[in-house]
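Appendix C: a fully annotated inverse folding record. The material below is reproduced so that readers can follow the format used throughout the book. The structure is listed first as tokens, followed by the designed sequence.
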């Protein structure tokens, strides 16, 4: 079985978190993708706006109509930073004999050397790196440390070409704080209804 892991703050979750992952699932033949909403992201101390339980609910709502996509609460432990390597160790134990793929963006791949125990992380999973259809390996390698660049061309890294989705959580929060309606195709309808019902970003 092949399982994808996709973590994030999801503040809020939007189609930029869903459509590229659907393409990754199709290209890699993943049986399932597990979304991991993070209670306390170590790279964004104090940065999120909506509380963890609200972001979890929005992820669940966004994935209702997406077969093969599920949410898992492993990283939602309050008062504890969630490091990706800990999550991977957890799923490596609970899902033995499974090929695990960690789905990340190009920006995260470029910062991989700063992650907690990143070498241990790479030893346990394959990295599925989301890239634009017109990407060039040389341009990406120039942004990487030698150790991370050395992973390219090995079976530890696969690049997933996907059409970029022009939406960001920062822009969404700004619009929602003003009471404005986001453009069509930015947010799942149920997520928008939930945000408005509880005034999450105002």
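Designed amino acids, in order:
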């Amino acid at each position: 079985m092949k399982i994808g892991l996709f973590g994030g703050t999801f503040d809020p979750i939007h189609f930029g978190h869903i459509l590229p992952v659907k393409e990754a699932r199709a290209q890699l033949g993943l049986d399932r993708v597990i979304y991991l909403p993070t209670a306390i992201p170590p790279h964004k101390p104090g940065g999120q706006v909506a509380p963890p339980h609200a972001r979890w609910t929005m992820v669940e709502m966004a994935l209702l109509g997406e077969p093969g996509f599920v949410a898992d609460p492993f990283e939602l432990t309050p008062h504890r930073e969630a490091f990706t390597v800990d999550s991977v160790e957890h799923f490596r134990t609970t899902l033995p004999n499974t090929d695990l793929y960690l789905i990340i963006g190009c920006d995260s791949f470029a910062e991989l050397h700063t992650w907690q125990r990143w070498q241990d992380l790479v030893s346990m999973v394959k990295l599925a790196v989301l890239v634009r259809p017109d990407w060039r390996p040389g341009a990406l390698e120039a942004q990487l440390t030698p150790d991370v660049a050395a992973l390219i061309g090995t079976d530890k890294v696969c690049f997933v070409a996907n059409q970029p989705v022009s939406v960001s959580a920062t822009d969404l929060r700004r619009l929602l704080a003003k009471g404005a309606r986001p453009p069509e195709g930015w947010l799942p309808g149920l997520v928008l209804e939930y945000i408005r019902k509880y005034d999450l970003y105002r």
